[in-house]
Amino acid sequence: MRRSRRRPNPNLLVPLLATALAVPLAGVPASVAAAQQPAEQVSNGDFAEGLPPWWHTENTPATVLDGTLCADVPGDTANPWDAIIGQNDIALVGGESYELSFTATASVPATISANVQLAAEPYTSALSERVALGAEATQFSYSFTSALTTDTGQVAFQVGGSAEPWTFCLDDVSLRGGEAPPPYEPDTGPRVRVNQVGYLPAGPKHANLVTDSAEPVTWQLADADGTVVDKGTSSPQGVDPTSNQSTHRIDFSDYRRGGAGYTLTADGETSHPFDIRADIYSSLRTDSLAFFYHQRSGVEIEPEYVGDSYARPAGHLQMPPNQGDVEVPCQPGVCDYTLDVSGGWYDAGDHGKYVVNGGISAAQVLSTYERTLHADRADPARLGDGSLAVPEQGNGVPDVLDEARWQVEFLLSMQVPTGQELAGMAHHKVHDENWTGLPLLPHEDPERRELHPASTAATLNLAAVGAQCARLFARYDADFAARCLRAAETAWGAAKAHPARYADPDDGVGGGAYSDTDVTDEFYWAAAELYLTTGSGEYWTEVSSSEHHDADVFTDGGFGWASVAALGMLNLATVPSELSAERLTFVRDAVVRGAQRYVATANAEAYDLPYAPAGYDYVWGSNSQVLNNMVVLATAHDLTGRGEFADAVLTGWDYLLGRNPLNRSYVTGYGEHDARNQHHRFWANQLDTSLPNPPAGSLAGGPNTGIQDPVAAEHLAGCAPALCYIDDIGSWATNEVTINWNAPLAWMASFTDDLATAQPPGGSSCTVSYRVQSEWADGFVAEVVVANTGTAPMRDWTVAWQYAGDQRVTSAWNAQVTQAGRAVTAKSPAWNGTIEPGDSARFGVQGTRHGGSPPPGSFTVNGVPCG
Ligand code: 9MR
After folding, report:
1. Residue whose CA is closest, atom 6 of ligand 1?
2. Is the peptide bond before 329 cis (omega within 30 degrees of 0)?
3. How far apart are the CA of 395 and the centre of ligand 1, in A?
4. pLDDT digit string (tens) for 534-580?
């Protein structure tokens, strides 16, 4: 049966309710009646989730379309069991009563065998019925008492034995009776939870222990050989409201030696193994960006760039059975022209392309590059031409910009053409007329594609991205940059002329609705981008008069596709412009305040997570909200260099990479226990083993308290917020991938890789200068500069000296400083752990002293005397 994928159809609710009232169960409350209904043993019997877990014999290809399974039954088979549609793992209990029911048709009269049986020899059946089918959909129902007890039974529709080929269609299969399946228990692995990929040598290193112990317990850190290299005691934290788990914190930040295969043991449990190394985020930077090439529409995905298993033909170029996207009509009554909207990125596991969501995604990919142009510790060469496996390599343009352009061109194509009533606005989206099932490769999608009405939100996304495109492409392709800016300014004008055209929240068949009825933030974002690109006072007036300019846009829940003011604010704070010092300070302070809030959040959370939405209502795609909060922290770090912001970024990564209540890394290919069955029509290995799992670097949406899809609803009812996730391809509400979730993943991986590796490490040649900057009767401030004068990077530096007088350090910045007697040790902060040859690091100390306290004259760096 066709499902309404995102929301129940309110029109259907009324008749259902009326039926329930018309047949009252005297004295039995509805909930009890429901509870007494025998247990359902078949999964996805209405095919709302596509094919799985149904299977078919190879000679009988079956697909699900519009929520009905249809199979091409071959001719010339001898026995019923020569062609089968079935479902395994059916539990049966001997002596219990069951009812098998289904609806079926045959394209020509045919007799099939409907069996409930053992899935392997001797294939003993509990039910075997010969059923005559015709063209008219008929419901069949059979009751039986099982003579079998098994956990591995099977429902099998044996459709072979015909001389001629025919088509078998099946729907609404149900097997009720027996015992309810056991409640779902997630496999949360060892009770010691770590970042399963690893930690930066100079970064914070926290882990969690789930335990009922009220007292601290001892922990041990072991290297790959099992040698204990560090130990300590945990700090009990009580019950974590996001998971209802009682946890302890383990802190081994002081251990800085690099290596692979470390484990942490506490309370008799040993963690998944992890590394300590500086380049942890290097491959993630490119993998997370490669995701976008995989998602490209309208072009072949070539094995040269992705390997054989991820290669596929071009999708939606109007080659049969595809119907789009070269000449796409509007939904009936919406417009009378067609547009070529081929290209762009598929939004997610579906084949829709949405301007709203596509806009923020393109913006964050563009910003991944733009940040490297302006942030102190970033190097644009890391994202330059040749850095990604894309066909545009070697064209002299940074690959990440090539990738973004693929989407920007699509966004531009969604603009309503000149001469039309809404010229300059952007169509909200293009997608299939009906939802398709899984698996389904893009080039095999037979659905009609349609343009949906223009919306103000889409138009402003186009304006914002067009403006950002113009300034980034100006030096690579002036014509394209000019086209981007023209489209952006036209879109801005059209949005001002039509400021309240909202996408219909019920327009969610065949694609997501992405509706948003507050576009004041889109106006703010677009005005900010247009101002940054053009410097025009007109746009500044729009920015400064917006309610968002003075508001706290860095909320607990974070920004996302429907609330984008933060994007404007972040770029105003970081992209060079004509802003006066006072105005720049105003926006930078806002970013820093937002980051301070997220630091406070992380410090208060059991898993140090910089995300705590009101009521812990983890939203659809919560992992991207975590990442967007990390983007704010990272930007504040770029602006201030303050270590607390970098630390909160790193503990955010810990959560995403496995140190969380489910002990699950949400990034495919990263960590021991990673998400790998995300909802996707091609990367559908869970449904068809000939298809791949998602490629490395694909982010799962993550815990979602709404659990809107049937798989989540069935398995996760009553879940604690951070546990509302299941790595099942059917769970589109907790386990999909999307371009707007991978975009902040890429931004953050790029930032963190810069933080950890784009700067120095260490050799033996160095100088340290200690300069007293100011002193007063009983205090002083001194700046220390450590320079690497050798040829090798100086990693994880520690500077040490002895005071000759009575100086006592009371505070320090840009280094972690401790003092024992006269001996002072200053360790590099997480974000500045390496000093390249020819480079230096600076930090400062403030302290007390009482006259006649000369500054120190000799120093060591990493134990080696330094001039
Ligand atoms: O990410 C979107 C989320 O914020 C919304 O709450 C949800 C329901 O409207 O839709 C999500 O977006 C989905 C889109 O509608 C269709 N493509 C897949 C997206 C991720 O699940």
Report:
1. 620
2. no
3. 35
4. 999 999 999 999 999 999 999 999 999 999 999 999 999 999 999 99
Alpha-carbon distance of 61 to 329, in angstroms, equals: 31
Q: HSE-up of 815 (CA within 13 Å, CB side)?
A: 28
Residue having the nearest C-alpha atom to atom 15 of ligand 1: 512
Q: Is 432 in the pocket of ligand 1 (CB under 6 A)?
A: no
The whole-model pTM stands at 0.77
pLDDT at site 761: 36
Query: Does 526 have pLDDT greater than 70?
Result: yes
Amino acid at 558: G
In this model, does residue 128 exceed pLDDT 90? yes
The two structure tokens encoding residue 371 = 């940040």
Which residue lies with its CA nearest to atom 16 of ligand 1?
A: 512
pLDDT top residue among 739 and 35: 739
| Cα angle: 519, vertex 557, 197; to 5 degrees | 125
Measured from the CB, is residue 732 less than 6 Å from ligand 1? yes
Does the CA dihedral 534-537-539-540 come out positive or negative? positive
- Partners of residue 840 on adjacent β-strands: 787
- Supply the DSSP symbol for 272: P
**Residue having the nearest C-alpha atom to atom 18 of ligand 1:** 348
Q: How far apart are CA 733 and CA 724, in angstroms?
A: 10
Active site residue 49: no
CA of 100 to the centre of ligand 1 (A): 35
Supply the residue whose CA is at minimum distance from atom 3 of ligand 1.
Answer: 620
Q: Is 27 left (phi over 0), alpha (psi -120 to 50) or beta?
A: left
Measuring CA to CA, how many Å separate 866 from each of 653, 759, 779, 841? 35, 20, 26, 14
Known catalytic residue at 444: no
Decide: 542 in ligand 1 pocket, CB within 6 A: no
CB 556 within 8 A of CB 612: yes
Ligand 1 centre to CA of 602 (Å) is 26
Where is 784: in which H helix or E strand?
A: strand 779-788
Q: What is the three-class DSSP state of 289?
A: helix
Q: Which domains does the chain have, with CATH numbers?
A: 10-177 (2.60.120.260), 192-276 (2.60.40.10), 312-441+449-540 (1.50.10.10), 766-866 (2.60.40.290)
What is the CA(512)–ligand 1 centre distance, in A?
6
Mean pLDDT of 506-511: 96
Ligand 1 atom nearest residue 733's Cα: 21
Q: Is the pLDDT of residue 35 over 50?
A: no
What is the reported pLDDT for 763?
36
pLDDT on residue 8 = 30
Instruction: Reply yes or no on whether the pLDDT at 391 is more than 70.
Output: yes
Q: Is the CB of 661 under 6 A from ligand 1?
A: no
- Summarize pLDDT for 598-655 with one digit per residue, the tens: 999 999 999 999 999 999 999 999 999 999 999 999 999 999 989 899 999 999 999 9
Q: Is any atom of ligand 1 closer than 6 Å to the C-beta of 350?
A: yes
Answer yes or no: is the C-beta of 6 below 6 A from any ligand 1 atom.
yes
| Mean pLDDT value of segment 352-380 | 95
How many CA atoms within 13 Å lie on the side-chain side of 347? 26
* Contact present, 402 and 395 (Cβ < 8 Å): yes
Decide if 72 is catalytic: no
* Nearest of 41, 289, 19 to residue 175 by alpha carbon: 41
pLDDT digits over 75-85, tens only? 999 999 999 99
Under the banding of pLDDT at 50, 70 and 90, the label for residue 52 is confident
Across the chain, what does the average pLDDT equal?
92
Task: Name the packing angle between helices 581-604 and 622-640 (round to 10°).
Answer: 130
The residue to mutate among 347, 351, 361, 514, having the most atoms of ligand 1 within 8 angstroms of its beta carbon, is 514
Specify which residues 774 forms β-bridges with: 781
Annotated catalytic residue 327: no
pLDDT bucket at 863, cuts 50 / 70 / 90: low
Residue 471 to residue 539: CA distance in whole angstroms:
15
